[in-house]
Design brief:
Elements (H helix, E strand, L loop, with lengths): L1 E5 L4 H12 L3 E6 L10 H4 L4 E5 L5 H8 L4 E4 L13 H22 L3 E7 L23 H20 L2 E7 L1 E3 L7 H11 L3 E4 L6 E2 L1 E3 H14 L4 E6 L5 E2 H12 L4 E4 L18 H4 L9 H14 L1 H6 L1
Parallel strand pairs: 1-2, 1-4, 2-3, 4-5, 5-6, 6-11, 7-10, 8-13
Antiparallel strand pairs: 9-12
Helix pairs in contact: 1-7, 3-4, 4-5, 8-10
Bound molecules: nicotinamide-adenine-dinucleotide (NAD).
Nicotinamide-adenine-dinucleotide binds next to helix 1, helix 4, strand 5 and strand 7.
């Protein structure tokens, strides 16, 4: 098949590209390199079945041209940083909602009808049901990021209804693993590299979060598009466990052989829109025969090992 992957040079997108190529598919990677890294596409660029388009998803003409002949679009490009939403209120709307609408329009014009979308567990805001299922009561939004992704989901569903699209919407917990380039493990390791004796922690460290290893995430997406054939297929993707930020700090510091002084900013959340408890019910995905291979602890340690071996990333971001 011919796949187009937006956000191909990003953390998750680049792993997806590598896997699609390994399975023998043709892949067009589309990325503006705003947060993507050329190094992540090194293997892909060596394949004759890979083509890279360096452009923005807001550039409708470039997007339409790149999409000609595609059978399936994986839309991974986004502003993926939840934390800074209120510092630039336009960004999530523009990059995540309007960007997704542009992808849908380019697909419609080029007759591409199947889309896989990287959504997020953040769309559940602060739910009251744990683990949170896909059909929990309609969520109240607490972050601009979550709101922009939920709006994007809405457009995808409306295009499925209005234009006969088929969609797979994946609501991820936080993803960990090789090429990880943003999030709490990144921030903690970066601090510890500069000041091994102290670590500043946002909130009180008691926030409970779930995480998933990037290869488990890619496995799930590929299995879902093969096995689930509804019009709109929505899947939570996460592990059947959660940890406290303090657990994660302990795993990271023990692994690095450090005993830093912990300085908490206080309060039960790290920033406005930080959800103090994220734990998704992934039984719908598990019913297709998928299960994650790594625990959260194992994924945290792989991530630290990757960051230690790839200091270039810490200097760039
Ligand atoms: N990493 C996570 O924990 C996580 C959790 C939930 C959802 N997601 C979603 O998964 C997707 C991938 O996230 P990631 O962690 O790989 O992030 P990332 O920042 O590493 O990847 C995003 C990629 O999209 C590209 N991009 C951004 N804006 C673009 C634009 N306007 N035009 C073209 N390319 C653009 C970036 O250059 C980058 O390569 C995102 O949609 C994100 O919201 C990620």
């Amino acid at each position: 098949m011919n796949f187009l992957v937006t956000g191909a040079a990003g953390f998750i997108g680049s792993h997806l590209v590598d896997r699609l190529l390994a399975l023998g598919h043709h892949v067009t990677g589309y990325d503006n390199f705003s947060t993507g890294q050329p190094e992540f596409l090194q293997d892909a660029l060596a394949s004759p079945r890979f083509r890279l388009v360096r452009a923005d998803i807001l550039d409708q003409a470039a997007l339409e041209e790149a999409m000609a002949g595609a059978d399936f679009v994986f839309h991974m490009a986004a502003n993926a940083d939840v934390r800074f939403g209120t510092q630039h209120p336009w960004k999530d709307l523009e990059q995540n909602t309007i960007g997704t609408w542009r992808v849908l329009e380019a697909m419609r014009k080029q007759g591409v009808r199947r889309i896989g979308f990287a959504s997020t567990g953040s769309i559940y805001g602060e739910p009251e049901i744990f683990p949170t299922p896909e059909n929990c009561p309609f969520p109240v939004q607490t972050s601009l990021y979550g709101a922009s992704k939920l709006a994007a989901e809405g457009f995808i569903e409306a295009y499925a209804e209005g234009f006969g699209f088929q969609a797979w919407i994946f609501r991820f917990v936080s993803i960990l693993g090789e090429r990880y380039s943003h999030g709490h493990v990144f921030d903690f390791y970066k601090q510890l590299r500069e000041h091994p004796d102290e670590l500043h922690v946002l909130g009180n460290g008691r926030q409970r979060k779930s995480y998933l290893y990037v290869h488990d995430c890619v496995d799930a997406m590929l299995l879902a598009i093969e096995k689930a054939q509804g019009k709109v297929n929505i899947f939570n993707l996460g592990t059947d466990e959660y940890c406290e930020v303090n657990d994660s700090i302990r795993w990271i510091t023990e692994h690095l052989g450090l005993r830093p002084r912990l300085i908490y900013s206080g309060g039960d959340r790290g920033w406005v829109g930080d959800n103090p408890f994220i734990f998704l019910d992934c039984s719908r995905m598990r019913a297709l025969g998928w299960r994650p291979r790594l625990s959260i602890r194992e994924a945290v340690i792989r991530t630290v090992d990757y960051l230690v071996a790839n200091p270039f990333l810490l200097e760039r971001r």
